[in-house]
Amino acid sequence: GASDAMRPHPLGVLPEGNRYLVSPEAAAASARARLEGLGAFAALPDALLMRLLSGGDEDDGVGAEALASLCLVSRVFRAFACHEDLWKAEVLRRDGGAFVFRGASWRETYRRGVSAAADRAGDDGRDDARENANDSPNIHHSRHPRIFSDALYSRHLAMHRPLDKAWLEKETIPVMRVTEGVRTEAQTKALASEFVDAYEKKNAPVILRGACAEWEAVRNDAWSLPALRRRLTNENVQTFHVGGYEVPLKNWERYCEASRPADEGGSGPVDDAPLYLFDKNFVATAPEAFCAQREGSTSGYEPPRFICSKSDDLFSLLPNRPDYRWFIHGPARSGSLFHVDPNGTSAWNAVVRGAKRWILFNPNGLPPPGVHPSVDGATVAQPVTLVEWYASFYEHAYPESDTEKSDSEEEEESAGSDEDSDAPTKTRTPADTKKRSESSKTSSGFLSGKRRQKKTYEVLEGTCFAGDVLFVPSGWWHAALNLTETAAVTKNFCSPRT
After folding, report:
1. What is the rounded distance in angstroms from the CA atom of residue 300 to the CA atom of residue 271?
2. I want to staple 479 with a disulfide (CB 3.0 to 4.6 A). Which of 26, 48, 89, 338 is the partner?
3. What is the C-alpha separation between 346 and 363, in angstroms, rounded?
4. What's phi and psi for 304, nearest 5 deg?
């Protein structure tokens, strides 16, 4: 349908491969415009030029004034200098967690400035997207030579690529239907025994359908951002961790509002890798908003009793246990990249509102395709966003055929592409991409001899909705993609049975 169509880049940038779809004259005009528009900088590959503008390893950038000047140099330089990752970095460098997203872009946010004075003057920053359309860098016209660049187009593609229905249709994580409600102690013990015997002892994931549906937070929709803000006693002081910054909830709400699609009143998406609230101190920061134990609370949560009681969590024996619980909130398309929970822990993750898509890989198989941990497991090279991973690697998790290939086929394959589908994706340049771990391709897919080991993946997928809890066993690679704006809470624990 029309809603699934890929929208054009605001500056008319196209992927590099499209150069071969135009006439030789148009391709030559594009190359000439790049050479004349970038001058001496035309000698640099696009990705390296973006890295230069973003500040390289120092991550300090050339600065907003220089970017604004470069926008006036030429149409080609404008395409580089208007890149949203550069302006996002400038906003966060200038304002930190006090940033207030304004308009429909990070560039607009920087231009308008973020200050407490503006807020006190009554400017709430919730601009109609149409008001800001005139300030858009959308100046391309058919008479201008096209700009072909993967480095410039990749962010736009990851941000606006529709989610393929095939990525969301499999429901292979086992489901255990649970209705919390009021039950006897015997019923609770029976439920716990079923969970332990069927899943926890076997280190197997399971979706516990409805396990937190009776929480006050779920029944009262108490973890929507407006509802949470109403209960905070001092929202200017009570901040939450977002991407390395401490952000007031009112500022986070504004970012999430802008990230919503136009048919939901926003101007989003505004990021290919949306910011993500992931806070470990939420109970201490705002007990009035999150704790069920408080008298008269209508917004609290309590750990599902049958998953892991306090006596079963070995971490409870430590005088100073590692971080173990987090409040999670993010707009659609936000989420967690592939990782294995630390310290050999298992976890439960409860969706309070929204919908969260999960994909898990059994530790008995190989790491997910396109995901390359370092030898010590401290760093992981993978695509910058989950949407990129799905687009590039999802299909490789499901081999078309498990039949064994002949020696001649294997030798022919080894001499060919050498499994390009499993190589880390291209470095995408500015701020977010730079932060991705650098590591070389692992050799786990090969035997020491000429024959190649066949890659096998044991993968499970499923979707959790408000009221559902996912049990993530120890050692499993997993990632989560929020299908809508989603609020959740998670806890890691060390089970004596896994």
Report:
1. 31
2. 338
3. 13
4. -55, 125
Are β-strands 206-209 and 477-482 bridged in parallel, bridged antiparallel, or unpaired? unpaired
Q: How far apart are CA 247 and CA 198, in angstroms?
A: 41
Which residues of 65-184 form beta strands (DSSP E)? 147-148, 175-177
* Mean of all residue pLDDT scores within the chain: 82
Distance in angstroms (rounded) separating the CA atoms of residues 482 and 468:
14
- pLDDT tens, residue by residue, 42-96: 999 999 999 999 998 777 889 999 999 999 999 999 999 999 999 999 999 999 9
Q: What are 240's two structure tokens?
A: 């939450």
Query: From CA 108, how far away is CA 258, in angstroms rounded?
Result: 12
How big is the CA angle at 263 (ends 110 and 118), to the nearest 5 degrees?
30
Confirm if 79 and 152 have CB atoms less than 8 A apart. Answer: yes
* Cis bond upstream, residue 269 (ω within 30): yes
390-435, pLDDT tens digit by residue?
Answer: 999 999 999 764 434 444 444 444 444 333 433 333 333 334 433 4
DSSP 40: G
Q: Which residues of 367-396 are buried (b: 16+ CB within 10 A; e: fewer)?
A: bbbbbbbeeeeeebbbbbbbbbbbbbbbeb
State how far the alpha carbon of 310 is from the alpha carbons of 118, 278, 307, 317, 369, in Å.
48, 23, 10, 9, 36
- Residue whose entry in the numeric block shows the structure tokens 């102690």: 185
* 267-315 pLDDT, tens digit each: 778 999 999 999 999 999 999 888 755 444 555 788 887 776 666 778 7
What's the pTM?
0.82
Question: In this predicted model, what pLDDT tens digit does every residue of 192-246 receive, in sequence order?
Answer: 889 999 999 999 999 999 999 988 899 889 999 999 999 999 998 999 999 999 9
For residue 202, give the nearest of 462, 460, 480 by alpha carbon. 460
Q: b or e along 120-149 (b: 16 or more beta carbons within 10 Å of the residue's beta carbon)?
A: eeeeebebebeebeeebbeebeeeebbbbb
DSSP type of residue 198: I
Task: Label residues 165-184 b or e (16+ Cβ within 10 Å = b).
Answer: eebeeeeebeebebebeeee
